[in-house]
Design goal:
heterodimer; A: 493 residues; alpha/beta; B: 95 residues; mainly alpha; two-stranded antiparallel sheet; 3 helices; 32% helix
């Protein structure tokens, strides 16, 4: 059976239940695609034996008639998720050789639902990056190609995005701290949702910035995102910020009916220098939602421009604290010490060797903004601004806005290495439309919307009310349906 | 606020990251670029605004104060770069 790896979750589920395909067949199709796609550098730890064992178990479960939606579906797992007995390095050399003795709650939820693990996916080191160029495993390559350059798949979930876009798996897990699901989804023409903060347990997900991190699915369609998100989320006593709220059947909420709903178009997201084609796509998407029966209203989110600077205080501050645990004592890399070196030498040498440049930079910025004398001026000020950003959203939601439509990114994918000489702030601008959502803790989804003049995918973002992922997915479903984006990268790898 | 080489050295030490002398000027420059970007926050009137502490207003769950976990010494030491006799081993801490 050809091209089983290209199936959506929904299509594979239906065929598995009908019995005209097995999970072992699906899994083998993906494993052979993965073996042929080494040049994309998406899968960095392959687990074919585990995959086939899980697939056999899933097939037995399907035959027994006890099959949740995700049963038998082969997935890629971002390296940020701890997976028991399987390397989990967060894309960092400092976790070289680390094999957790436990499983993250989100991945465990997926395995409990019968999903199959194909292996671990490349990512920016500790999820810090927007181009997947900071990984200890090397750059991930975007399957989309328009000339002889290799393009970035975006980051930090670049391996997940590349693997899903190239059909190496049916779907993948991602995580999103400032846009790390939505930006790579947009760069590779796939769908990615970051749920409301607290929907997915963070337990067992290597921490970057704990008040911003959320896991979410990266998939080939909105329906798939609904199916997979439902399996991933749920209350977890092991994460005190996890919400104790029933998880709805998200797929059942894809009614396609958005009549009488109100969509906000925030004026602050018209950025200087943004390509005309993104403006046009945004206007087209707006017209489509209007045509589907939604009311369109211009809104203002006045503190938008301060979201990135606030993020670049808060995220590094939390990272400097979270990453203090990598000290060469309990797990991962320890530097070789010289005679007479004391414990501080061990810490400093280990962390200098184990952390890459971007991680070092952010840990040190975080250390600085938290240090005595600067804590109020930087960290507390940023947290106050964060409150204002959140209030901007609360105000428009209170005024009757149901969801907000924006571009997902200010550009399409750029070439690997093209930003190397730019100052770090230039790279940070990739997240300008996504980072507000993390600061406010809201759900956001990126939907593939069209191709730019070069032939590269662009995405639109929808932002929803807290805990209303079902409604948000329904808006995205309507948009997806009307946009009719079906383009796939031509296989060159 | 401008970061000089001395401050960069101090921050690197606080973060416990060894930075060689010849890297310090470039590092100080990178800090200045990023902090320059962050300076925009000073334009915002935050008078009377509380620092945000939680994304969703919710009371943290509590549980009975009792031992629920433990006896996993082997698992805990499994990934240690240097474990001896049931302990993590580190270089001498006290002179």
């Amino acid at each position: 059976m050809a091209d089983l790896n290209k199936l959506s979750i929904a299509a594979a589920r239906d065929r598995l239940r009908k019995g005209d395909v097995t999970s072992v067949e699906l899994t083998q199709a993906c494993l052979s695609e993965i073996d042929g796609a080494g040049v994309l550098n998406a899968f960095v730890h392959k687990t074919p034996e585990i995959a086939l064992d899980m697939a056999k178990a899933a097939d037995a479960r399907i035959q027994a008639g006890d099959a949740p939606d995700m049963c038998g579906i082969p997935l890629g797992i971002k390296d940020l998720f701890c997976t028991k007995g399987v390397a989990s390095q967060a894309g960092s050399a400092i976790l070289d050789g680390f094999k957790p003795e436990y499983e993250s709650t989100v991945s465990q939820n997926l395995w409990d639902a019968g999903a199959v693990m194909l292996g671990k996916l490349n990512m920016d080191e500790f999820a810090m990056g927007s181009s997947n160029e900071t990984s200890t495993y090397g750059d991930v390559v975007n399957p989309w190609k328009i000339d002889d350059r290799n393009l970035t798949p975006g980051g930090s979930s670049g391996g997940s995005a590349s693997a899903v876009a190239a059909d190496l798996c049916l779907a993948a897990t991602g995580t999103d701290t400032g846009g790390s699901i939505r930006q790579p989804a947009a760069f590779t023409g796939i769908t990615g949702i970051k749920p409301t903060y607290g929907r997915c347990s963070r337990w067992g997900v290597v921490a970057f910035a704990s008040s911003l991190d959320q896991a979410g699915p990266m998939t080939k369609s909105v329906r798939d995102a609904a199916i997979m998100l439902e399996a991933m989320c749920g209350h977890d006593a092991k994460d005190s910020t996890s919400i104790d709220l029933a998880v709805p059947n998200f797929e059942a909420m894809l009614t396609g009916d958005i009549k009488g709903k109100t969509i906000g178009i925030p004026k602050e997201y018209h950025m200087d220098g943004m390509p005309d084609e993104i403006e046009k796509l945004w206007a087209d998407g707006t017209a489509m939602l209007k045509d589907a029966g939604a009311e369109i209203r211009d809104i203002s989110l006045p503190h938008t421009k301060y979201a990135l600077p606030a993020y670049y205080v808060i995220a590094p501050a939390e990272a400097s604290s979270n990453l203090a645990r990598y000290d060469g004592v309990r797990y991962g890399h320890r530097a070789t010490l010289a005679a007479g070196d004391g414990i501080n030498d061990m810490y400093e040498k280990t962390r200098a060797e184990g952390f890459g440049d971007e991680v070092q930079r952010r840990v040190m910025i975080g250390t600085y903004v938290l240090s005595a004398g600067f804590y109020d001026a930087y960290y507390n000020r940023a947290r106050r601004v964060r409150n204002l950003i959140k209030r901007d959203f609360e105000t428009v939601f209170a005024d009757g806005i149901d969801a907000i439509l924006t571009p997902a990114t200010p550009s399409s994918a750029f070439g690997l290495g093209e930003m190397t000489d730019a100052d770090p702030v230039q790279m940070y601008l990739n997240d300008v439309f996504t980072v507000t959502v993390n600061l406010a803790g809201l759900p956001g989804i990126s939907v593939p919307a069209g191709l730019d003049a070069q032939g590269l995918p662009l995405g639109l973002q929808l932002i929803g009310r807290p805990w209303e992922e079902g409604d948000l997915l329904n808006f995205a479903h309507v948009l997806e349906d009307r946009l009719g984006f079906v383009a796939k990268p031509t296989k060159w790898w | 606020m401008s970061i000089d080489i001395e401050t960069a050295r101090k921050v690197a030490h606080l973060a416990r990251i060894r930075v060689e002398e010849d890297r310090l000027p470039a590092l100080a420059q990178e800090f200045n670029d990023i902090l320059g970007f962050i300076e925009q926050l000073n334009e915002v009137d935050v008078e009377g605004v509380e620092p945000m502490t939680s994304v969703t207003p919710m009371r943290l769950k509590r549980r009975a104060d009792e031992v629920t976990d433990g006896n996993q010494q082997e698992k805990i030491l499994k990934n240690a770069p240097d474990a001896r006799e049931g302990f993590f081993a580190v270089p001498k801490v006290v002179e």
